[in-house]
Amino acid sequence: xxxxxxxILRNAMSEQDxxxxxxxxxxxxxxxxxVLDLKTIPYNSEVADKETFVYKELAxxxxxxxxxxxxxxxxxSTATTTTTTTTTTTxxxxxxxxxxxxxxxxxxxxxxxxxxxxxxxxxSFPGSHSQPWHTDGSPLFGNTEINQSLPSYAINIFVxxxxxxxxxxxxxxxxxxxxxxxxxxxxxxxxxxxxDRAVPAVIGKGDVLLYDYRVCHRGTANLSSSLSxxxxxxxxxVVGDKKKKKKKKEEEEEHDEDNANGGRKGGGGGVVRKVxxxxxxxxxxxxxxxxxxxxxxQ
Length: 298
What we know:
This protein is α+β, with helices and mostly antiparallel strands. Helices cover 24% and strands 22% of the residues.
């Protein structure tokens, strides 16, 4: 973690916990998308080309990707899910929280325990584009060399909910390993250079991926024809095969060309990639959360 900025723990979660979290992801998506459909608000990659919007509970800032806040203590929260036939738990498994809190404490150790800054779901719809390369925040001390030697002060955690074989097609997160100590500005680096250095975080069911808040990364295009769910806890050694990465790059190029020619943009099959994530940080660190003031559910 210190040198690479990310690490994977294999089979860290039980099958039961994976099943519970996957169901929560599905129910959250249904509840949010039902309301958006009723309000005729475009949100997926098939209909939302340049459409962006923010609410108190959710935001769409990138083509085909939706960020939904999670709060199991809020009566109006998207965590609350009840249907005519089933009532789904709104609480994350205690074993998951215990694991991720311990992991965060072991990395962000200090006089005070780390704080859980944010929890939320990310939905990447079929046909979504790859994100621009980015870091999750700006350097603490501007463009000075001191940033290169700082220890971690914020981390994210993902828990895989799907088979490894699905991950590349469903749009795994790619990382530039070690970039948290290199003062890398993704806006001033050639895209080809970034792709050549990229390592896809290929994780299976129950695997836990941790990564430093400062590592340069991107979510890749959802090219799926089968379901993807990943739980991300923002509180990541990533395994990527060069042949798989080359194949993924070729598929993305075909996907972008298809969209440019008016082809399928998330329609005609495919499913949504779901990520539940949380961010842990040292108590003094303040993160800006970019959401609106209006409620979607009012």
